Amino acid sequence: LDALAHAVRLSFEIKARIVAADEREHGQRALLNLGHTFGHAIETAAGYGEWLHGEAVALGMLLAADLSQRLGCIGTTDVARVRELLHCAGLPAAAPAIGAATGLDLMGMDKKVLQGRIRLVLLRQLGAGIVTGDYPADALQATLRGHFEAAA
To answer: d(Cα 121, Cα 44) in Å, to the nearest integer?
Structure first.
């Protein structure tokens, strides 16, 4: 528990430095959105108040890790590590069964959509993200099906 508290405290300090250096989100600050686009779809589909914002974004980080793994950027052990960290923090690691089509539609309403492409923060490796809209649509569909249709 001390390690988790230390990690959270350090994360806040890092986030504060990034936000202060990039107030208008033109650079590194966008990386802080890891999990947000997936998370906003969960929040909206589940209904206001059913999922806390932090819970939905945390689960969104797992979906981003899943998609990153499907793209060959990280391994299955990295995805398992993200899932275990969520579990240790008492956060959900299973998505509501909102359906892949609904998830995709809701993600398409995100403010980060650019020229019709859903821009996501994905992982090149654990601890190193990238903001991109350049990924195969079928990989995103597989992630959405695997999470939004697997829950019961």
So the answer is: 19
**Is the distance from CB of 133 to CB of 112 less than 8 angstroms?**
no
| b/e 80-96 (16+ beta carbons within 10 angstroms → b) | eebbebbeeeebbeebb
**pLDDT tens, position by position, 38-96:** 999 999 998 878 899 999 999 999 999 999 999 999 999 999 999 999 998 899 999 99
CA distance 103 to 115: 19
Q: What DSSP line would sit under 73-103, residue for residue?
A: SS-HHHHHHHHHHHHHTT---S-----HHHH
